[in-house]
Specification:
The protein is built from one helix and eight strands; from the N terminus they run H-E-E-E-E-E-E-E-E. By secondary structure, the chain is mainly beta. Strands 1-6-5-4 form a four-stranded mixed beta sheet. Strands 2-3-8-7 form a four-stranded antiparallel beta sheet, with no helix packed on it.
Length: about 140
């Protein structure tokens, strides 16, 4: 059963606009932009996370969901600058994706290059709807 929360869609919409979103006490919360592809033997998620270091990215798989999150502080010490307004203190992005029932989580891999995180989750070759084929000798 695929249930969706209408508030998730509203949050994602607000997180994509430059002036709205979950800005609270110096924290900018937004959704990561993703591409999702499903092939015969793997499920691939590509997420745009520009400006993050590998250490600032967290990828977790739990049950039937994959959660990608990144958190960083953009505050830098610069004694020569006199800011009139400063909002770039902390940035946090997150995205949760529903995984196929045949996902093999223990064999999942993730790579991060040029601001793009790619998570690859192998799929079990046996489709649950088709059952297990037995060869006849």
């Amino acid at each position: 059963m695929n249930t969706t929360n209408p508030f998730d869609e509203i949050e994602q919409f607000l997180g994509r606009t430059p002036f709205a979103g979950g800005r609270t006490w110096g924290r900018d919360l937004r959704a990561a932009d993703i591409d999702v592809a499903e092939y015969d033997d793997e499920f691939v998620v590509m997420a745009d996370l520009p400006g993050f270091d590998r250490e600032e990215i967290d990828v977790r798989a739990s049950g039937d969901r994959l959660t990608i999150s990144g958190e960083r502080d953009t505050e830098r010490e610069d004694g020569d600058r006199r800011y009139l307004r400063r909002e770039r203190r902390h940035e946090s992005v997150t995205r949760t994706i529903e995984l196929p029932a045949t996902a093999v989580l223990e064999d999942a891999t993730a790579t991060y290059r040029h601001g793009v995180l790619t998570v690859t989750v192998p799929l079990d070759a046996v489709d649950a709807d088709e059952g297990h084929r037995i060869d006849v000798n």
